[in-house]
Design a protein that fits this description.
The complex is a heterodimer of chains A (about 425) and B (about 400). Chain A is α+β, with helices and mostly antiparallel strands and about 425 residues long. In chain A, about 50% of the residues lie in helices and about 15% in strands. Chain B folds into two domains: about 5-45 and about 280-405, no CATH class; about 65-260, no CATH class. Classes of the chains: A alpha+beta (about 425), B alpha+beta (about 400).
Chain lengths: ~425, ~400
């Protein structure tokens, strides 16, 4: 039966090529636009560390003075050096890391390469294990290296390819700002997306090319990037960052279950109280312990333009679908005579309804294929944009499936009303007017 | 023209009529909001900026020893001034729209410090000697910096410069001292204070909000000596005639790189800085334009398709009307009026929908309120599209000969 309906559908669609093309084209445009924007949205709102993101938390404290105090206001988005180091040394989480971003002048040993700047992340030992960064060669540093302000570096595959031709460079020397660092690890392909651990330096950039111990960065007075908020007499003087009343570091902690998270939150409250008693904190304890995904959500990391584009594209799809409903209705009603004959020859309403739905399904499938083509074209165009996230705009299997379901589902839905209307035709009336 | 027969006929075709109304309403709602978003982005992309944008080439130099800046900078500048076509050259801390912002809170009363509620966040530009001429700042009141101002200024322990003179933009002056001349007034960031010696035409900040943000021009300019700059001066600005600019970008970058083998030099023209800053915005605007055009085309074809169907269905009635005396113009008018009625219903619904969407977006995405005239403008656009697309099928209807009436089906 299905095959017969399919045959009928194709015949009918062939009879009026312009109308068929118009319907398929409209569905394809709507699907193409929606899928392009939805894919970008899907990529941008993804989980940077699937599987482990539920165990990563971002503690916030409120070390500010009473100036401008309002109860219930959000604490600062970063921590001071003193609080960061205190939390780090307290070791209350399974793992924890304190970090900030920067840029370092790299002086290649090869004479044919000019010195260049490389983005760097200054952090502490647990960073790599906690964020599941994959190592191609070597390993990260340990807590003793942190304490010793060791001149060690972990670099990405990209920097390793550029400086060492992609060979295992562990043990080699990397010159940064006239200081010799020993390469102890090379990271494999790693691009957590969004760049969750520090949203100040761009939400969707790739990872930094060089990772150095935080203590070493301060020891050598390397350049810092990112945001810094100060209060009271804090002035962001680069020589006294350790004692400044400024927040400028990110602190992450790994807590494996809910009870650990609850205990950690209590620890933060107790810590704030203790600091208050010592006179460092002036405000009442005001702490947050957001999980990774909550932190991304709180920071509205997906650009609002991207959300607007999704809305707009779905508005457009709706226009296209209403248009298709109208055209399909016109087409089905024009065939009232033919349908009347089928009904008179014994086809039930249900049969005629099924036949017409098959026809709209064919249009949906063709529109979906066209839409897929347009979505691929749209994503190709997005990839040639200068945004940080441009290179990520690719269709994955989930979105591919969504495209087809959306296309066929939408056009079946669009076919429902016209098919139902066409079934209502009284066969006798149609036969008479013939 | 009597519209009663048209309404009567529409009542018999409720579903197709409703579909046309719905399609026009949706198209109108999306169109109004999309065009409004486009206009906001275009306004941002073209925000005025009172420096000589067309004539500025810039080379950023990083990785040199700040201790040697006192001798390096004059040497570099002398070399740049030697390049053919250079009208002025200077070194500055940052450029408008470069995203490299150094902001600080300033007040108007002694004792105002960074965290006071009354303090206003201002972007600071530090200009090396001749920076005002190299950027092409337009002094509106008072004077610009003199050699003494440049030579006296330096950085000490604080991130604020040790000097006592400042230039402010006209916007900032108007906000700090409304209705009063700004020259001679003082900006405070305790313990520092700076006397306003001049007011310049509005220069954008290195990092701005959206087009309507009132703070986009809150900028102040401070003099800075090369020797006391502690590495803050790293952007070499070379001003020339616009036709020489691109050549000078390359030549200046080469020159700076040759003179500073340990540093990293990167050159670009100012138009590129502006283009890059607004790149995301302009691609969003183009995508909106594309969606609007395609959506209107789809709507128009939809109207053509449905009306054609209608005309075909009513060939006999049209023939009868023609046979009993209706002229071609009458038939044409009939379909045009019908479309006008449907469009009117559609745009009425569409304007309400457009307004609703705008209010929703205002709540969710800090979007501005859409000015009222977008609604009637969108309505007129859809009326015109409706009339244009109905014309073809209506002409075909008018061409139906009266003799059709005498034929059975």
């Amino acid at each position: 039966m299905f095959q017969y309906y399919l045959d009928l559908a194709l015949r009918s669609l062939k009879r009026n090529k312009a109308l068929t093309a118009l319907m398929v084209f409209a569905v394809a445009l709507g699907i193409g636009a929606s899928m392009t924007t939805l894919t970008v949205f899907h990529v941008l709102s993804g989980d940077p560390i699937p599987g482990a993101s539920g165990t990563l938390f971002y503690p916030q404290l409120d070390p500010q003075d009473m100036d401008g105090y309002q109860p219930g206001k959000e604490p600062p988005a970063q921590v001071t050096w003193i609080d960061g180091m205190n939390l780090l040394r307290a070791h209350r989480g399974v793992r924890q890391a304190l970090m900030t971003g920067g840029a370092v002048p790299v002086q290649p040993a090869q004479s044919d390469l000019d010195p260049f700047f490389s983005d760097a992340r200054y952090t502490t030992a647990d960073f790599f294990a906690m964020f599941q960064a994959p190592f191609l060669y070597g390993h990260g540093w340990n807590a003793a290296d942190d304490d010793a302000k060791a001149r060690v570096a972990v670099i990405t595959r990209k920097l390793n390819d550029k400086l060492f031709g992609g060979k295992d460079s562990t043990g080699q020397t990397l010159r940064i700002k006239d200081t010799a660092f020993r390469v102890i690890g090379v990271l494999g392909d790693w691009r957590p997306n969004p760049h969750f651990y520090d949203l100040n330096t761009g939400g969707y950039r790739g990872v930094e090319d060089a990772f150095l111990p935080l203590t070493t960065f301060r020891d050598l007075r390397l350049d810092r990037n990112g945001s810094m908020d100060c209060w009271g007499r804090g002035g962001g003087d680069e020589d006294h960052l350790e004692t400044a009343t400024c927040v400028w570091l990110q602190f992450w902690v790994q807590l494996d279950d809910a009870s650990q998270a609850a205990a950690y939150k209590q620890f933060l409250v107790n810590y704030s109280r203790e600091q208050h008693d010592l006179g460092r904190f002036q405000r009442p304890p005001n702490v947050r312990l957001r999980s990774l995904m909550q932190w991304l959500d709180y920071n509205k990391v997906v650009p609002s333009d991207v959300r607007l584009q999704v809305y707009l594209a779905f508005g457009f799809l709706l226009v296209c679908l209403v248009n298709t409903v109208g055209l399909m209705l016109a087409k089905f009603m024009r065939r009232a005579g033919e349908l009347g004959v089928r009904r008179a020859l014994g086809a039930s309403r249900r049969n005629v309804f099924a036949q017409l739905l098959v026809e709209s399904g064919v249009i949906g499938l063709a529109g979906g294929l066209g839409g897929l083509g347009l979505a691929l074209l749209g994503l190709w165009a997005v990839r040639h944009q200068p945004s940080d996230y441009a290179e990520l705009a690719r269709l994955d299997p989930t979105m591919l499936l969504t495209t087809f379901l959306l296309a066929v589902g939408a056009s079946l839905l669009a076919g429902l009303l016209p098919a139902w209307r066409a079934c209502q035709v009284a066969p006798a009336l149609q036969l008479k007017s013939q | 023209m009597d519209i009663r027969p048209i309404l009567a006929s529409l009542r018999r075709h409720r579903i197709p009529a409703l579909l046309i109304v719905l399609e026009i309403a949706l198209a109108c709602a999306v169109l109004c909001n999309a065009v409004f978003m486009i206009s906001q982005r275009v306004a941002s992309i073209h925000l005025p900026n009172a420096i000589d944008e067309a004539g500025i080439a810039e080379v950023t130099l990083n990785g040199t020893d700040p201790e040697l800046a006192g001798s390096d900078i004059p040497r570099n500048l002398a070399a740049l001034r030697g390049l053919p076509g250079v009208q002025a050259a200077a070194v500055v801390s940052t450029l408008p729209l470069s995203q490299n912002n150094w902001g600080w809170g300033f007040g108007t009363k002694p004792g105002d410090a960074l965290t006071d509620r009354s303090s206003r966040n201002v972007s600071m530009y530090f200009l090396g000697s001749g920076g005002d001429a190299a950027l092409g700042l337009q002094v509106l009141e008072g004077r610009s910096f003199n050699d003494g101002d440049y030579a006296d200024s330096h950085f000490d322990k604080s991130p604020l410069p040790e000097t006592h003179v400042v230039l402010v933009t006209r916007s900032l002056a108007g906000k700090m001292w409304p209705g009063q001349p700004a020259v001679g007034k003082t900006l405070y960031a305790t313990p520092h204070y700076y006397t306003v010696i001049g007011v310049v035409a509005d220069v954008l900040r290195p990092y701005i909000g959206d087009a309507n943000s009132p703070a986009n021009y809150d900028a102040a300019f401070f003099p800075m000596s090369a020797a006391g700059s502690k590495g803050a001066l790293s952007h070499y600005v070379v001003r020339s005639a616009p036709r020489d600019r691109d050549r000078l970008v390359r030549e200046a970058e080469q020159k700076i790189a040759d003179l500073n083998p340990g540093g990293v030099a990167h050159g670009r023209g100012y138009p590129e800085i502006r283009r890059r800053y607004f790149a995301d915005m302009s691609s969003m605007a183009w995508m909106l334009v594309l969606v609007c055009v395609v959506m209107l085309a789809v709507t128009a074809f939809g109207i053509v398709g449905l009306t054609s169907f209608w005309v075909n269905q009513r060939r006999r009635q049209i023939g009868i009307r023609r046979a009993v005396g209706a002229s071609r113009a009458h038939i044409l008018q009939y379909f045009q009026t019908e479309n006008f009625l449907l469009s009117t219903g559609g745009v009425a619904l569409g304007m309400a929908l457009a307004f609703g969407i705008n209010v929703y977006l205002m709540h969710r995405y800090e979007m501005a309120r859409m000015p009222w005239f977008y609604l009637p403008a969108g309505a007129i656009a859809l009326w015109l599209i409706g009339q244009a697309s109905v014309l073809g099928p209506a002409l075909r209807a008018a061409a139906v000969p009266p003799v059709v009436a005498t034929r059975s089906a």
